[in-house]
Amino acid sequence: MLTNSELKAQLSADFSQLAQQKNKLGRSFLLVHSDKLDFHLELAQGTDETHIDDCHQPVHLASVGKLFTSVLIGLLVEERLLRFDDPVSLYLDSELCESLEHLAATQPSYNISNLRFSDQLTVRHLLMQTSGLPDVFFPLMEKLKAGELYDPTATSSVAISPREAILWGCEHLKYQSALGTKHVYTDTNYYLLGLIIEQATGMTFQQAIQQWIFAPLAMDHAWLHGLSKPSKSCYQPANLYIDEQDFLAIKGSHLLDYAGGSVIAPLPEYLTFMQSLVNGKLLNSTIVDQMVSDDIAMGFPALGFRYGYGVWKTRPIPLLLPKNHYCWGCVGVTGAFMFYHPQTETYIIGTFNNNKYREKALRFVIGNVIKKLLVLNQTLNN
Predict the structure, then answer these.
(1) How far apart are CA 337 and CA 173, in angstroms?
(2) C-alpha count within 13 angstroms, C-beta hemisphere, residue 270
(3) Which residues have a Cβ under 8 Å from the Cβ of 186 and sit 6 or more positions away?
(4) Which residue, of 10, 22, 113, 176, has the fewest CB within 10 Å?
(5) What Pfam families does the annotation carry (predicted)?
């Protein structure tokens, strides 16, 4: 048995204890909301260099932003501006297509056929992370931090763009697995999706996000890191620590963020976004269902998850992960999460703003929050 107030007290204490672990850098945020359970909780814990003490401070949820990219693709599919099974060659320039072909050919088992690799690689492969392409984010982030991606003689000084990042990866990295056979998580796929969105809409990626998602949902305090500004003034975002360095403060980091992350907003606006997906208000429910159900096993180290179109969802594991813990949403490397738990109709959104918390955050959501929500649900049903 568990009452509403008791659950709030327990989650507040558990969240506070986890957020206050030794040597923790950054502020932590949690929002739990369920109309069905008549439950709402918002928490913020800790301090950072922004010195802001407000649970509505905007936060960057790292790769949770990929769900915004995949939903934007879904909206373009709904408007018949593209299809999930379109080959990327319809949208990418010849240099990118040739570079992708060169990269794919480095795999010993690559099957040369009459079709170029870019004619076989589809939007669906990119969404599901089954392209086999290598990840360029972390190798280039190390170069960015070392100042190797700057041209001091150039006007903008930044000598890398998402497109150039892809070209760099095609030249310097190795192809990971045969097309469509394995889940290989990489920001490279989402850089390509960003370029496809720009080609399909005739807009920049940030303009498309604003017009198709932020504006319709009145997400007035949302923006893309380094690419746009919020419609209404708000607090500066909380620091986002990767290996004890604030990612948002790294010059040029936004160019490696792009369609693979980028979204910054207060937690209530992320809630608005998730509610719009679940309720079919932003995107047709049939497309949302496809994005969730058309999936592939993620494999090690995310053994308890399957991956759809930018969507993480749990899969049952005997004795470890019961069926009633099923949830879907998205995850960020900095201990960020945005999930919907259908059985209790609950949204669980938050972040620890530190990459040391990636696994801890998932255990907290599934093994703590959802477990206790189920107890409250049972109490209310008795």
Answers:
(1) 29
(2) 35
(3) 129, 131, 133, 134, 135, 136, 137, 176
(4) 22
(5) Beta-lactamase
Q: Nearest Cα to 180, choosing from 132, 220, 217? A: 132
Q: Which two tokens stand for residue 72?
A: 């934007």
Q: Is the pLDDT of residue 158 over 60?
A: no
Residue range 102-118, pLDDT digits in tens: 998 887 666 666 678 99
CATH number of the domain within which 245 lies: 3.40.710.10
pLDDT digits (tens, 9 = 90+) for 246-258: 999 998 898 899 9
- Per-residue DSSP letters for 10-29? HHHHHHHHHHT-TT--S-EE
**184 and 267 assigned to the same domain:** no
Report how far residue 69's alpha carbon sits from residue 98's, in angstroms, rounded to the nearest whole number. Answer: 25
Of 19-23, 200-204, 353-357, the range with the lowest mean pLDDT is: 19-23
Q: Are residues 15 and 93 in the same domain?
A: no
- Point out which residues pair with 33 in neighbouring strands: 40, 347
Report the chain's C-alpha Rg in angstroms.
21
Please give the Cα distance from 202 to 204 (Å, whole number): 7
Single out the residue of 212, 186, 185 nearest to residue 198, CA to CA. Answer: 212
CA distances from 34 to 39, 340, 359, 364 (A): 5, 10, 24, 18
| Structural domain containing residue 316 | 4-65+207-381
Show which of 203, 236, 265 is a domain's final residue: 203
Measured N-to-C along each axis, helices 162-172 and 94-104 cross at an angle, to the nearest 10 degrees, of 30
Whole-Å CA distances, 101 to 112, 113, 245, 337, 382 = 10, 11, 36, 35, 60
pTM of the model: 0.95
- One domain for residues 198 and 76: yes
Structural domain ending residue among the three candidates 203, 229, 254? 203
